[in-house]
From TrEMBL:
Keywords: Calcium, Hydrolase, Metal-binding, Protease, Serine protease, Signal, Zymogen. One of its GO terms (biological process) is proteolysis. Residues 1-17 form the signal peptide. This is Subtilisin-like protein. Gene3D superfamilies: Peptidase S8/S53 domain. Its main location: secreted. Binds 1 Ca(2+) ion per subunit. Ca(2+) binds at D522, V523, G541, D543. CDD domains: Peptidases_S53, Pro-peptidase_S53. One of its GO terms (cellular component) is extracellular region. Its cofactor is Ca(2+). The lineage of its organism: Eukaryota, Fungi, Dikarya, Basidiomycota, Agaricomycotina. It comes from the Eukaryota. It is found in: Secreted, Extracellular space.
Amino acid sequence: MFSSSLLMLSLLLLAHTTPIFRDLVVHETRSDIPAGFVSSGPAPADRVLNLRIALAQSDPAGLEKALLDVSTPTSALYGQHLSQEEVEAFVKPSPGTISIVNEWLSSNGLSATPISPAGDWLTISIPVSKANALLNAKFTTFTHPETGTSSELTMAYSIPTELKGHVELVHPTISFPNPFGLPMISAPLKVAPDANVSSDAVPASCATAVTPACLRALYGIPTALASQDSNKLGVAGHDFQFANQADLKVLDDASTGPQLGHDVHIDDARWRSNPQGANQACDEANLDIQYTIGVASGVPTTFISVGLNNTDHLGGFLDIITFLQKQASPPQVLTTSYAQNEDTVSQTLANSLCNAYMQLGARGVSILFASGDGGVSGSQYARCTNFVPTFPSVCPFMTSVGATTASNPETAATFSSGGFSNVFTAPSYQYSAVSAYLTSIGTLNSGKFNKAGHAFPDVSAQGQNIEIVVGGKTGVVSGTRCSSPIFASIVSLLNDRLVAAGKPVLGFLNPFLYANPWAFNDVTTGSNLGCNTTGFPAKEGWDPVTGLGTPNFAKLLEAAGL
């Protein structure tokens, strides 16, 4: 009798302590298919999905506070960047979270592999049929007829109630990829005569094509080579784009500095490792390298090439950050010339990637992205009624770069994307500047954007008729894709001076930038078109076309305490 009672008690305790994972609750859902995509029917049942599971981090709020403490000039902790181990302590999931998620997977015959250094991202491989059952989902093949691309996604999925508070998201599920891949090329390899940089110090040739020499004259960028080997600049490369060394030597006087000395491949990009034939030269990669090495002369530069075998479903955005998180000494600056529309990405995924930028920012890394080339229409021009923010530029833990065109004075480029996020709220560091702008425009474009959202871009630089060399041929291109590497180069040169003076690098830039608006050339003319409107007008102070303005190297150096 005693043995039977004890057995019964043991079973009852086991039932109360072991999750059964039967009750599912909707975790993420979306009501609409992004513009340009169509459903092509159920995904093949045997198609294998590589799903990623983001686990709840231990203290993201604590990490955000730490980031702002080391990034705000008035803070007593300014410049005291965190170590890799200190950051991971904020991010690492609790033992309870790890245990219950692994138990759920094991009960379904699955095992996960950690893919992030803190263990907050896991990956599993699972056929569509089993994924549908596991997540109560309906994975569907969505195609993008304009580009011919397709993806297996679902409009909603569920997780067991026991996993609420432990699982942040499963991906890719309801987030759609950027179908276009490459940024827009406004003027591909064609010399355009309408640029007009005008200053006594600026070469006359800059009236038709902007070169590194033009930028040095316009922004006061020093010609002396950088001297600190520990200060590094990273350039993100996507879509099998590789920089051509021969083309680099042709442009301006870039050959006086060191050539591209380090090329990193992730996501199986190695099989096409850095092809150097003239017919293999790529305009985007050449642009990014020619305007980092060519402007930040002497700064060691790494080109990080993402292969097509990326499974982050974000074109490699997340894979690059995960790769850099694992590095003991990542580049202090990373520039990316790609963007997609915010509405293609779920709020949870956007927040997760943004938090990954926060982790690197806390370690002293400045992350910059092109704001996009569709004005208020988004990453590229499209039909729309309400304004379309771009991603990741809407993330408050990185720096978004808009574009100006070369006139005297500089004016906003009409294609420069900018506006307000529908996901992220305005951070404290930009509240005053943004509030002043919103007051100045009154009811203009009322109802077409979220006034409470995080505003972008933060800054701008030249983006029209930028001269590059591709396959030995010289021409010009346009877009914010030009502006991001230019501004990133200036940040790298500022870091070079800081390191030489025994001071910490700038790290996460935005609190420093918004605290020093006087260090920029204010752009007060032009607007960004789109959605059958004239968009936002550039005005005195910050605006959602050119941000705080374009860089003045001498003033930025002074603001940095040098």
